[in-house]
Amino acid sequence: GAVVSQHPSRVICKSGTSVKIECRSLDFQATTMFWYRQFPKQSLMLMATSNEGSKATYEQGVEKDKFLINHASLTLSTLTVTSAHPEDSSFYICSATVGGGYTEAFFGQGTRLTVV
Amino acid sequence: GQQVMQIPQYQHVQEGEDFTTYCNSSTTLSNIQWYKQRPGGHPVFLIQLVKSGEVKKQKRLTFQFGEAKKNSSLHITATQTTDVGTYFCGLNAGGTSYGKLTFGQGTILTVHP
Questions:
Q1: Which class for A60: exposed (0-12), middle (13-18), buried (19 or more C-beta within 10 A)?
Q2: pLDDT per residue of chain B (113 residues) written in tens, 0 to 9
Q3: What is the number of CB-based contacts under 8 A between chain A and chain B?
Q4: CB–CB contact A110 B42 (8 Å)
Q5: Residue A70 burial (C-beta neighbours within 10 Å; 0-12, 13-18, 19+)
Q6: Most CB contacts within 10 A, which of A86, B12, B81, B93?
């Protein structure tokens, strides 16, 4: 199967600072990637669709200015949590699909963000 | 958009017992996918169902898609400790949004040895 790599796996930052999370497709090109957020013992909630070379599409209720998404190449999407606050602490995870007969989504390892 | 409801939220079983999680929708689903997330891990694809009444098996796992394509289930026979994790059903949006998943709430399975 395809490999999606996410970095960092864990990050602790101070309140008010920004954190960048990278999502890379290692062995395929992904014109579209997806960013999810997951709270403990809860489901994955889609935050936004990252589109290569164009603006991301955000789900209702997700602040565009707080969660900046950039998809500058066919293998890399980044999520920047700006001016992070403790309530932004969560598990962030990206996914991508390969196409060409593969039906499933491939997920990165996830990033555990803790804002102190 | 379409939503999928998943029950139960938690299931505790003794090793060797069976386990079932259910996914329901009020509208007809074009597909349903199942994923497993181990504690601390990321979701891993298990199966996709697209046909009415479809049944697929993977060793001890049996996946079903209802005749009306409004519900699905995952059944594990004789659970093992390696089955521990959260099982999610998900609807793949398809079309230009292919890969965009709407997940059910998930069922957290614990297996007592």
A1: exposed
A2: 788 999 999 999 999 999 999 999 999 999 999 999 999 999 999 999 999 999 999 999 999 999 999 999 999 999 999 999 999 999 988 777 788 899 999 999 999 99
A3: 53
A4: yes
A5: middle
A6: B93
Q: Which of B42, B98, B102 sits opposite A108 (nearest CB)?
A: B42
- Cis omega (within 30 of 0) on the bond before A8? yes
| Closest chain B residue to the Cα of A104, Cα to Cα | B45
How far apart, in whole angstroms, are the C-alpha atoms of residue B87 and residue B34?
A: 7
Q: Which residues have C-beta within 8 Å of that of residue B71, sequence separation ≥ 6?
A: B22, B23, B24, B25, B65
- Residue A51 corresponds to which amino acid? N
Does any CB of chain A come closer than 8 Å to the CB of residue B100? yes
Contact B101 A93 (CB under 8 A): no
